[in-house]
Amino acid sequence: MSIEIEEAVLKKACMEMIETILFCLPNAFKGTIYRVGKMPDLVVERITSGIIDDDRISISWGLPSNSGYSYPGKSWIEYRDEPGRPLEAMGWCVERQKSWTAEDPSNDSRSVRLQLMSQIEDFQHMEPVLVRKSDLNLDMYSDFPKNHEGETIWKESEYVVVAVVKIHFRPYTIRMNSAETRVIKKLSRSLGTELLSYQLRQDSVKAMEEISKDRFNACNILADSLRNAITKSGLIVSIIKQEVGHLREQWEDMLLKNLNEKSIKEERIKRLEDILAAVEGGDKDLRADLINVHRKFQDLSLPPELGRRWIEMQLERKWSDFIKSNRNITDMEKEFINQSIDELKKSLGFGMEPDMVAHYNGMPEDLKKELVRIIYEERDSFDAQALERLLDILANPSLNMQSKERSRKILTQLKVLAETMSQLERNTNFLLHQVLNGNGAKKGIGE
Description:
- By secondary structure, this protein is an alpha+beta fold.
- 55% of the residues lie in helices and 10% in strands.
- It is built from 14 helices and six strands.
- It has a six-stranded antiparallel beta sheet with strand order 3-2-1-6-5-4, sandwiched between helices.
- A hairpin with a 7-residue loop joins strand 1 and strand 2 (44-52).
- The two termini are 43 Å apart.
C-alpha cells in the first residue's frame, strides 16, 4: 500500500510545500517533489516543480525540462544501487530513508548527469518524506522491495518512503546538517502528515457515503482548514523562533566585540571537550553522546530559561552519567566540569544584563532596550505585534547588525504566512461552531 489520493489534491499539497520552502529559505530558488508509488515497484514520478523569481515574489510552476522521472516515472529496479551503473541520489533517499546534500556538485558521487555527461548539477538537497508503516496498515508480510543483493529494504524501519523533496540552492549556500536542511526535514515530515491526512480523509469519504451532502461538505471544509492550521502554523512559529535566535546570536556578538571579550559559551564548551578528550575510559556510547551534545549546543541559540532547561536535560545529565561510568575522572576534573556547566547556564542571558547592555552605545537607549526585550522573550505562539515591532527595529538605520536585512526579509515573509494561518484558524472555529450546533451558514466566514 502507498499514499493514494486524487492527482489534483496531491499536486496542490506539493505546491504548498514548495511555496513554503522557497519563501522561507532565501537561498533556495527551485523545488521539485516526486511521488513514490506502490510496493514493490516504487515507481518515482515528478509531481510538480516551482521556480521563484529574482524578486522572490512569485513562483513559476510546471515541469519544463526532460527527466527520467517524468511520467510514467522510473521503477525501483531502474534507480536502485547496482554494480556497473551510475549511483543515484534518489536510490539513496528511498532505500536508506536518509537525505542527500550536494554541497559540492563537482564531486557529487550520486550525480547521474556528472557521471554520464560530465555536466555539473545544482547545489541541492533531497529529503525523503516518511510515513509510519502502522498508519498505512503495513506489516512484516507486506510486499517490500529488495535491493540488488536480494535483501529486503526498510525491514528494520518503522517507516516507508511516500515522496522525495528536492530543493535547489544558489552556489555554496547549502551544507549538510545546516539550518536549511533541518527546516526542509521538518517540512517533509509535515508533508507526510498532510498526505496521510488526505489518504485518511479519502478512506473516510468512502465509508461515509450515507452522510447528507450539506453536512459532508461542511465537515470537508473544516477538515481542510484544521489540517493546514495544525501542520503549518506550528512550524512557522518554530522558524520565526529560529530566526529570532539568529538575531540573538548577532546581538551577543556585537556586545562581546564592544567589550573586547570572548564568548563564555565557546570557551566553556571547549574546556568540556578538552576534558573529555583527555580522560580515558568510560562508556563509549555516553562519550559519543557528549560529543554530539557539545556540537549541537554550539549551534543552538535559545532564550535563557529554555536554554537552562536544555543544559540540565541534555548536557548536565549526560555528563553526570559519564562521570558515574568512569572512575578515571579526578575530583579536580569533576569540579571543572560542574563549574563549566554552571557558567554556561549563567552565560545564557548575558545579552540582556543591564550592565552589558549599558556599555553598548551604538544605538538609541530606548531602541536598544526594546530590541533586547523582544529577542529574549519566550513565546509559545505567534505574536503579530511583537514581530511587527521587531521588523521596525531591523529597518532602523542606527542598528548596525550584519545580517539585519536578511532577517527582515525572512521575518516579513513568515509574518504573512503566519497571518494567513491565523485567518485559517478563525475560519475553522467558525465552521466548527456551525457543524456542532447544526446551524445554517447565514453569515460569511470570519464575520
